[in-house]
# Entry
Amino acid sequence: MAFRSFLVRPFAKSIARTIDRWSAQAVDCQEKTMHQILAQASDTAFGRDHGFSKIKNYEDFKQAVPIRDYEDLKPYIERVKSGEPDVLWPGRPAYFAKTSGTTSGVKYIPMSKESTPLHFGTARNAMFNYFARTGKGQWLDGKMIFLSGSPELETVNGIPTGRLSGISNHLVSSWLRTNQMPSWKTNCIEDWEEKLDRIVDETMNADMRLISGIPPWVQMYYERLLERTGKRTVREIFPNYSVFVWGGVNFEPYRAKLEALVGGTIDSVETYPASEGFIAFQDTFPASEGVTSSHPLTTNPGLLLNVNAGMFFEFVPSDEIFNKNPTRLWLHEVEIGVNYALVLHTNAGLWGYNLGDTVQFVSKDPYRIVVSGRVKHFISAFGEHVIGKEVEESLLPVANAAGIRIVEFTVAPQVTPAEGGLPYHEWFIEFDNAPADLEKFALQVDAAMRQQNIYYDDLITGNILRTLKIRPLRRDAFREFMKSEGKLGGQNKVPRLANDRKIANWLEGWTAL
# Structure
């Protein structure tokens, strides 16, 4: 074990023990967090408007604080942007994380001096926890790359403002910065294609050991590395590459292609960061030979909910999120397997904030979740309410069984087919290697989809819908779509499905011959 990993190892073990403690007391942590953030914000404008000082328990809390989306909270955020202190949280934000919304335009998400350290701190703890559980810390002794947005920040009335991934670059500890790549100058390049070329220039001869980023953009990095070096696999370029850190999308659609580019399997750590808070992270890993731990060294499904990080979580059954008075639950009331919309109350001043993600619990001891989709990303043109998790779990097992690798895909309803006949769900898929019999493959995916969603099955059985159709796409179709939207690279993701045909209509021009 080299010098840096040797020094970090005791601290990593301490972090892992701390995670064990709070994850075993998750409900108590959440109740304590609720009371703490209410007390801290009681003298803010929002706290006075909503009677925080009178709230004694969760039932009072629900009555006092309604669920909001960004547009509902925007009047308060505009006051913060204008320079007014003590609006949503004491003082003024340390940062604004700037994100793009589908209906709100640019969103300005406040990050307070209390919440900001928890973003980088949770990412660090997730990696130290991996080290403690597996004994694998060699990634600390070489170079690490974080494929992220530009760290250049603007100011809004004196508040530093930028993308979360860019802000995170400012939070990296000095002891770790010497390992970090690419350079600050390269990271500031806005054009993704140009930035990628410069990243390859800087890293291709480095001792790269950890790579972090959203899978589709990491794939582009791998491909550009291989193209430039003439090597067959990434492992030939980076023989000490040992761990891949990712989040934001389901890894499974990309797994086969990424592992083929790397030259085999590689350890990975999944995280669930958002501008609003670091929601969850992977806490268990396959056993490593010779490593002992009181924690079970097995890979359990789901991510550990981050219940001790200044966020109080609520959960609303996803089909009720747009109701006037939806069912609202806190942690001790949730059930396994139910699709919930995730609602946040944070120590940065977000109150009753509908994050827009849907999650399902896969464990309550400890509390682990999987991300099942987006509140607004679904298909329900005929009442079927198909979600992202269902389309992924229909396509991927069929593809894997047939040895088919998927680059990217999205699904949209076709309500009025030009050819006539019944409507259907249209799947736009970019294959790395297409099935020999596309019609047979489509029927197998459709059968899996009918098992995933009983409403979809009823519509097929009742001759309301016909079976799904697959439109194979030319290479780089999705990358070109993201480029056309100005969303190539960084933290941007292709929606898995939509209830309209905006993406589908664009992709029609990229159908494979």
Summary: The domain at 378-510 is CATH 3.30.300 (GMP Synthetase; Chain A, domain 3). The longest helix spans residues 3-24.
